[in-house]
């Protein structure tokens, strides 16, 4: 099913309303949808490199707005859905402790999920559920998603089709290593 969905999203790149399709995919991916907007961005930018920055900008705005929906789901619907499930599993108290720890590193969690292959929707919902300050969430989301989408757009704009394999296969690893090194550096500076 995921493969068919992936192929369908990829097929939207050639649609006359591809920018709108990208906006919808980026919006939904930040809260509920399993396919990342990069799948649509890459062929769109390769087809029209002169629109790379516009395409990245549409993905950025829609993704941050979708992240706000994920935040709202966590903030407004967690009590009705998540809390009874956790209580029935005997995890109600553990989640309160997790909530405190998440907000201590919330900026980094949102930044990390925003640029790495980690499902961004998990962090958007957790951010709302734990009560992360909305302004922190929005600013971090803008920073993380801008890094991700504009780096992809810049690489495709500059190098075109030859860089596609690198972006699809290796760029998520590069982003992940970057975030780990960033976290490690701050950890070392803080505790050494």
In terms of structural class, how would the helical and strand content be classed?
mainly alpha
Q: Average pLDDT value?
A: 77
How is the biggest beta sheet arranged?
Answer: none
Share of residues in helices: over 70%
What integer value in Å does the Rg equal?
18 Å
Shape descriptor? globular
* Number of distinct helices: 9
Oligomer: single chain
The total strand number stands at: 0
Spans of at least 5 consecutive residues whose pLDDT stays below 50 are none
CA-to-CA gap between the ends?
Answer: 49 Å
What are the secondary-structure elements, in order, as H or E? HHHHHHHHH
Strand content: under 5%
Keywords for this entry:
single chain, 192 residues, mainly alpha, 9 helices, globular, membrane
Summarize the structure.
Residues 38-155 form the VTT domain. With 192 residues, the chain is mainly α.
């Amino acid at each position: 099913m995921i493969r068919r969905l992936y192929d369908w999203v990829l097929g939207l790149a050639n649609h006359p309303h591809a920018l709108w399709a990208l906006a919808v995919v980026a919006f939904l991916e930040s809260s509920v949808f399993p396919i990342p907007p990069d799948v649509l961005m890459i062929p769109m930018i390769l087809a029209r490199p002169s629109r790379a920055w516009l395409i990245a900008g549409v993905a950025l705005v829609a993704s941050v707005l979708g992240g706000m929906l994920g935040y709202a789901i966590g903030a407004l619907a967690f009590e009705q859905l998540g809390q009874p499930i956790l209580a029935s599993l005997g995890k109600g108290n553990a989640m309160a402790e997790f909530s405190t720890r998440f907000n201590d590193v919330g900026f980094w969690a949102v930044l990390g999920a925003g640029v790495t292959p980690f499902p961004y929707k998990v962090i958007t919902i957790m951010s709302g559920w734990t009560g992360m300050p909305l302004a922190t969430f929005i600013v971090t989301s803008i920073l993380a998603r801008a890094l991700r989408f504009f780096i992809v757009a810049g690489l495709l704009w500059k190098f075109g089709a030859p860089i596609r394999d690198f972006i699809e296969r290796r760029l998520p690893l590069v982003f992940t290593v970057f975030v780990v090194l960033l976290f490690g550096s701050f950890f070392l500076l803080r505790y050494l």
